[in-house]
Description:
Elements: E1 17-20, H1 27-37, E2 42-46, H2 78-84, E3 85-88, H3 100-119, E4 124-127, H4 136-147, E5 153-159, H5 178-188, E6 195-201, H6 208-212, E7 219-225, E8 230-231, E9 237-238, H7 241-252, E10 256-260, H8 284-295, H9 302-307, H10 327-334, H11 337-354, E11 364-370, H12 376-388, E12 391-398, H13 401-414, E13 420-424, E14 436-441, H14 453-460, E15 464-471, E16 474-483, H15 485-492, H16 497-500, E17 512-513, E18 518-524, E19 555-565, E20 568-571
Parallel strand pairs: 1-2, 1-10, 2-3, 3-4, 4-5, 5-6, 6-7, 7-10, 11-12, 11-14, 12-13, 14-15
Antiparallel strand pairs: 8-9, 16-17, 16-18, 16-19, 19-20
Helix pairs in contact: 11-12
Amino acid sequence: MPLGERGGWERTESRYCGVETDFSNDVTHLLNFNISTGGFDYVLAPLVDPSYRPSLVEGNGVDTQVLPVCGSDLVLSPSQWSSHVVGKISSWIDLDSEDEVLRMDSETTLKQEIAWATHLSLQACLLPTPKGKSCANYARCVNQILQGLTTLQLWLRVPLVKSEGDSMDDTSEGLNDSWELWNSFRLLCEHDSKLSVALDVLSTLPSETSLGRWMGESVRAAILSTDAFLTNARGYPCLSKRHQKLIAGFFDHAAQVVICGKPVHNLQKPLDSSSEGTEKNPLRIYLDYVAYLFQKMESLSEQERIELGYRDFLQAPLQPLMDNLEAQTYETFERDSVKYIQYQRAVEKALVDRVPDEKASELTTVLMVVGAGRGPLVRASLQAAEETDRKLKVYAVEKNPNAVVTLHNLVKMEGWEDVVTIISCDMRFWNAPEQADILVSELLGSFGDNELSPECLDGAQRFLKPDGISIPSSYTSFIQPITASKLYNDVKAHKDLAHFETAYVVKLHSVAKLAPSQSVFTFTHPNFSTKVNNQRYKKLQFSLPSDAGSALVHGFAGYFDSVLYKDVHLGIEPTTATPNMFSW
């Protein structure tokens, strides 16, 4: 039974909750007790008797061995195996053991159990935590297995630990930083997209910055031990504020919770009449609390629901200078009312500065919209003129002949024929009949200059009077190092260098931002320099917080911040982002 069906979260994988169980020969009873009675969505169960060792099996050869599995594939339907069981690989295996017999038994058993899980059409299997700091042979074997898998996902179990000491100190005992264990394992498996991580959430947690690294990793499950729960005033299990925040973060990143361990809260409750004769699942109270946390999540806004399908999805950047945009693309831009409100405010301020009140009825301001599209900036400019009671003459320059058709219809429908002149031409080749007081454009890309805005506006500023105003007047690009496992794998799937060298437009979500963003390039318009050169080079140095631990930089997130005019700003840089804007 999913944790909840509200607030938009019903569309995410995190609404399912599992339970870790011991080995059982009666899988049907295991499912009835934990799913039908217990309310869990699936069981994380061993597939093979934990006492099994290939070297101890009597027989003349491997062919005579019968794997002591938890039950025939016939005891459940294929859909039940697939949707209600996640296989748990035997926890005793140690492929990096000094003991040769144990090492060979481990490799044989691992391959046998994965083969059985594949036969059952399971969606995922949980791999045991590497036993020591060295996991090279374990990773080698898993990588070999991954090459032959098609649909089965492998989850590597990793405890969520990070000591305050130096994580690179090889002389210390125990595991200092579990992220380093995960990172070395997945690098040896070549970042295979079928390998994910399942984190053991314990009673103590590392620092906030250390935990933040995991939000950019492919975390499929948070295995929550009953020992991690506290007890509230009524005797029921609850989690600390930090644990609650962590679990909410996992919900937001589509990770599922799995309850594990023995019940440590013994609540004496009378049996309901409906449950008479049935054994109550002692872990149900923990599931109820996890469901409470899920249902407490803030509902997704309408905008967030629309964006769900675009989260961490690679989109090739638009090339409006080279390509003619489609009507659907224009419509997406035009729905962003916040952007055009900001443009209108900028034009209003520019008009007031350009024409004093006493001359408002005499002077007509010439405004050129370069890259007019289907007319949203034309409309915003005319509304600004109406608000400020200024006279305006507008030139709408647009190279896309299809958008020009829409522009003509808009002008005719609104009765703007005396005010708006439509120019169907590339701004770079148009000879303007007069110079403009104000030049308005929306050529900014997600990185500011990545859609050739500087080159276009430098070419178009010949239309502008020497004291003319450009909107935007300047913009700055920013970059920020991030861990983004999913995006890296999506790019890697293309198997070529060209895709790694492409700057994608992405609605970033499952990423770990490793350090604050820093400014890169700034462009100012108009630029009347005698030598205009838009080539740029910048070298930056980022510092991670001291308690963060090691991290892997998969790439850089790019943002921009723009000054439209004076104090009117527009941007997506996280610390100064314009609220409720979704164009970029």
